[in-house]
Structures are given as C-alpha cells and as structure tokens.
Fold:
Amino acid sequence: MSEQSEEASLAVRISVVMPTYDQDTFLAGATSSLLAQTEANWELIVVDDGSPGDTKMALGEALYDARVRIEVFDRNRGLGAALNRGLDCARGEYIAYLPSDDLYHGDHLASLVAALDAAPEAILAVAGVRHHHSETSPGRIEGEPLQLVQVAHRRTEQRWTERSELTTDDLDHMLWTRLVGRGSVVETARVTCQWGWHPRQRHKALREPWGGLNTYRARYRVQEPLRLQSTAGHLHDEVEHYRRFRERPSTPPVPDGLRVLVVGELAHNPERILLLEERGHELHGLWTDSPHWFNTVGPLPFGHVADVPLDDWRDAVSRLRPDVIYALLNWQTIPLAHEVLTAALGVPFVWHFKEGPFFAREQGLWSQLVDLHTLSDGVVYSSPELREWFAATVPSSAHCPSLVIDGDLPKAEWLSGQRSALLSRGDGAVHTVIPGRPMGPEPEEIAALARANVHVHLYSGKAVAQMRSWVTQVQQLAPDHFHLHPQVDQTDWVAEFSQYDAGWLHSFRSDNHGDPYAATWDDLNYPARMGTLAAAGVPMIQRDNTGSTVATQTLARARHLGVFWRDPDDLVAQLRDRDQMAALRQSVWSQRGDFTFDAHVDRLVDFLRVLVPRRSGTGLV
Structure:
C-alpha cells in the first residue's frame, strides 16, 4: 500500500462533537451508543463546558479509546463556545453532534455519512429522531429547531453563535440557517437517534415557563450580563438595559450605613435594590439556586451587590457580619430563607413576601412559611390585604413588627419621558392595553368590545408561544381589534403605554364576600403591571368586585385610579366617557411616583434600623 493510500485510510470520516455540562450520569450511555456504531471511522471531541462534576471520571473506559479526546473549559462559556471548540479541533470530513444526554442508534452515523456521500450538493443531513420518550419524527420535530443529535454536516468554516452575541435555544439561528443557505438538505427518513427528555435540558433552562433568563443564569453560573431570547419569549438585553447602573461608581458609605445581606431573589424590577446602595448602605447577596423565570438572582447584571457563596454561606456570613438580613420575595425562595432564619446567626432577620401563600401550600412549604412569618424579627407584606390574611390564618404572625411595601416596584428613574398622544384622538376608537401576559379578559369579552370599536393591544412576546390557544381564539373573534406587540422595557413604558386610553389589570371575579378565609391570591395581590401602568399614567381596568375584599380594588378606589366594570357594555360606556377618563388619566399621572420603590425605600430603611439594635444589642456597625 502506498503512503498516500495509507494516509487516506487513516483519515477521520466523521468528527462527533459532544458538549457537556453537569450531566455526568448521562455520559456513559451517550458514549456507549457511539462506541456501538457500525461506522467506526469517527473521532469524539468531548467539550467539558466548565462542568461542576468530574467529566473524565464519568467518561470511564471511553476516555482510553484513541478516538476520544477531551477539551475542558475553566468555567461555563455556553453552548456556542463549546461547539465551536469542538469544530476547531475536528479533523473529520463530516461533523456530527452527540449532546451528553442524547443517544445514537447503532447505524446512526453510517446512515448520515451515506446520505451525504450520495448527495454531493447537500451541506447537511438530517436523521429521524425519537423524542418526548416515545414519539418519533422522520425529520424536524414539530415546533422545534433541528436537534444537534439528528444532524451531520460537511466541515465548514461557519461557526455557532456564542453567548457574547446571543444566548438562545434557537439552533436554526445559531447555525443551521447559515449552513442551509450554502447547500441543500438531505433526510435519511429513518429514526436513528434519541433526543433526551428530562428537566435539566438546556432548552428548558432557557424557555419560559420551564425556565427563563434567571433560571439559565443560576443553572450555568453565568457571571456576565446576558442577551437572551428563547423560542418562547422576547429579547432580554441585560447588556444595554442595565449598562447605566453597572457603569455608575459605587456610592460612598454613609456613617450610619447598614451592611445588608439580601437573601433569596428579587423578582421583577430587581434594580430597585440599588436604592439601598445609592443611599450609602452596603449590599451583599445570597441567592437561591433554583429560581423561576421571573425570579432575579445573582450575579446581578447591574452590579454593586457582592455575592456570598451558596456552598459555604454560613462561614461567609460569619465573616461578613451583616447588620441585618433582608430575605425576599416569592415562594421559590422559602427553603433558603428558612434555612438562614433557623441557622441562629444572631443577626436581625426581616422577611418580605409577595407570591404567594397558596403556591407555598401546593409546594409543601407551608410550615416553613409560617415560621418565616412568626419567627422573623420583622415582616414586610406586599399589600394590607395580605397582612390581614396572615393575621387571620396564622394569628401569631400579627404580633411580629410589620410593614407594607409592594415587593417588586420599579425604580423611579424609569418614569422619564413625555406622554404620547392618545391613539383614540386619531381614529375615534377606544384603545386599551395589556402590558404582559394576559390574565383575562375572556376571548368572548374581547369580541364584545370589538363590536363596540374598542381595541385591545397585547404587549407580550411570550403569549403567542405560551398561550397560543387564547391568542388564536381572540384573533379569530376580533381580527381587526386585537393587536400583538413585542415586549416593552422600562425605558419605553411612558412613551409607549401612555398612548392608550386604559390598561388591563388581572381580570377575575372575586367571591370572598369580605371573608379572609375565602380569599384567593388574585384577591390579595398587587400585580407588577400596576406599577407599569401607573408609570405611564394609564387608568386601570378591573372587574367590579364590590362586596369582596380585593387589594387592587381597594387601592384603585381610594386613589381614583381606574374603571370597574360589570359587563362589556358597562365598560364601553365608561371608556367612552371622555371627561371621566381624562380625570382618571390625570389622577394616575399625578400619583405615579407612589408606585415606585423610591417612594418607600426610606420607610424600609427605618424599619431595618429599628430592628438592628433591638436584637444585636450592639447598635449599628
């Protein structure tokens, strides 16, 4: 055999790139499925993307196969970077992918190689795939991008989109679309691989409601601000959105400043916490490691809060010696808050709670939540009604010092900008807005409003993906009066939402009849969109629940903030009363500062100050 032919016989036919992060228990199965391939002329490039486990140990005997090599990142850099490292190392004519939680069937590589060999014009080959445990698809799974495990393509200089540009589960955007623009696609039409299905998949960490921005940040220990857009949501551009805060110099401490340890998560409008730092207090954060999509956790993209390591938090807090612990906000942080509360740290502990006691019961966290309301040195409630509910259902909580401040109010500096002209002045119709995921009204009610020439504008990139049935039904019933718009960040709240005659709060019927034991979370809650609408001076629409205790109803009636409707005809009549709506609009605009955290932060600081010497006996540090 000539040297040239011997070299050709040793050439790698197909390079398999395996990105892995915190999936040690899956690795052996994935590599075993590769070792069992009928096509043996392959190489495997495992890219350990800063995994907290021991990837080499998990690979076991496979690591000693001459065809296997491993690349290790010192920290997680994201899927795009891991795949690109694999491509940079690849020697094969073709590239295939085997995420460490997926599996190949025995002839998977052979069928993809054969498909590409038979179609010189093809850039990419697609295999059929088993998914969702037992379902199969001969090609692309409906509603999903092509999955890594089912694709092989010719070696190319094209590279995957990396985290510094965009974080997404849209693999088409990350690479496939660019590849397909350079050649045709051939399908094997045979199911020869399996896309894993389990809670810790990357796309589930990215997509709401399984995951989201903050779930992804916590899962992958991301240190930097993100630009993230999943296939089920709008673009979150933390890089630009929080630049103003991140680039500000730290505030010099005031002589009597508090060292505050924030425990848990910050939910919506998280940058509000900076108001404490801007008043000269020192902020540290101990964050839950299992937030939901709307629960903001550190490292915070706006900076000025020093993180405390979760894995050795007791020693870190002992060294830190905070003056007070401020634990918040939603039910997902109850386990961590309770752990800190009961650790006997000798530090005053304040619990600020918003969502929600009923969810805590469902999740088996009720006993811990009771402790947080009865053993804390102080409790902050998000509404007076929530405080009254706890006083009724947990009577001993009524003896704890308490305060009422809504939990996720925005920062006042987002209230900048001029109001826009009303759309109704241009066309004579009435235009209403839903800022965020629709929580009512019903499709039939929107249809009735449409017949009266009342428009509904929905600002939510998520609703189309997450509430497709509701959106489709409304589009069918009110095609000319229902309008979809992308999500609007705080910088544009005033200019965008002020053009509407009124905005929808959560739309629900209450039947508690003033009995606290019959109240629901809808009855007790101030939804975050209340602050959004107030910022733009938009009157608030809610059902008339006269006779029941409803937090938003009590507040809106007392402050003259909105309209209360019994049926669509009643609502139309009120919305067309120009004098009434003009008076409401001016009333909301004049009070919008009260719906910011700035209006309440000094009360919170005073509350914290009172508790510090009360328990420590040493005064302020």
